[in-house]
């Protein structure tokens, strides 16, 4: 077992990080058995993450008194904060595009949800971290920010880090409830 | 040096067998591994029931110690986890630097590596091990304990053969003897 994933065992409200990783791993393996094609699994994971994200963002805002973000940099900070809050350790924010509408979340030398995973060669198209992308996308969509996320680097596939590239698409004006503004 | 490391599953099926490359006849080592499993089986029988204990509780240690009475060439050690996963280690008898304690440590490290490997969600428990990191680890273990003749530390692993009608090592063992 990894020494990294130590969570306070006595705290009833928290579970050990290893448990999350194993559960997620088992889930991915099961989806893979059901869908067989890695591309289909990616889609499912994205959907799964999206559904987590749209719920989690509400909890996040409620618990942290998060004010409105004024620019995309603040958004990045909030996403980072959310990771610390829910996954226990936070990614670095970096690689900003000069235009300020694109950044990366970077976990050096690790994958936050895949400590034990070793990919068989025939599964290299499987995007294990897709669930994180989905969660970020879902969460931001609920606060009227439309983003596109790609996995730039994947530690599990031999890269030095896990890097998610997040690009700002547009503000979702339509999603505002009628009568506001 | 460690000449051979074998990892077997609960049903005595081979999960991983690695034999040092400067061995002329690897088949002999397969034979030794198989017969070592008999001894493991014997040693890992539950102790007779004693008053007050849980029925059939295992009180033995995981490390089983020397399995064979020391022969001229090799010594065979065994380790059997509570999940009935077995590990067999064959070392040169002439190597006097490997004492019981070192063997024990080797087994413990192997066990930790195995448990890390088994955490991989893409590994099906009980299937032959294909994990690269575990292979590398076992390779390094065989190489690390060889200061003697081993010049080129590249290793090969022997492909495991399955007979369709006798999938376990027990079956193969019987075949060898008949």
TrEMBL record, chain A:
Signal peptide: none
Record keyword Transport present: yes
Coiled-coil features, chain-numbered ranges: none
GO cellular component: endoplasmic reticulum; Golgi apparatus; TRAPP complex
Location of this chain's protein in the cell: Endoplasmic reticulum; Golgi apparatus, cis-Golgi network
Family: Belongs to the TRAPP small subunits family. BET3 subfamily.
Subunit structure, as described in the record: Homodimer.
UniProt protein name: Trafficking protein particle complex subunit
Native species: Hypsibius exemplaris (Freshwater tardigrade)
From TrEMBL, chain B:
Pfam family, one: Sedlin_N
GO cellular component annotations of the record: perinuclear region of cytoplasm
Domain of life: Eukaryota
Matches recorded under InterPro entries: Longin-like_dom_sf (IPR011012), Sedlin (IPR006722), TRAPPC2L (IPR044760)
Matching SUPFAM superfamilies: SNARE-like
GO biological process, alphabetically ordered: endoplasmic reticulum to Golgi vesicle-mediated transport
Subcellular location: Cytoplasm, Perinuclear region
Record keywords: ER-Golgi transport, Transport
UniProt family annotation: Belongs to the TRAPP small subunits family. Sedlin subfamily.
Xref: PANTHER family: TRAFFICKING PROTEIN PARTICLE COMPLEX SUBUNIT 2
Annotated protein name in UniProt: Trafficking protein particle complex subunit 2-like protein
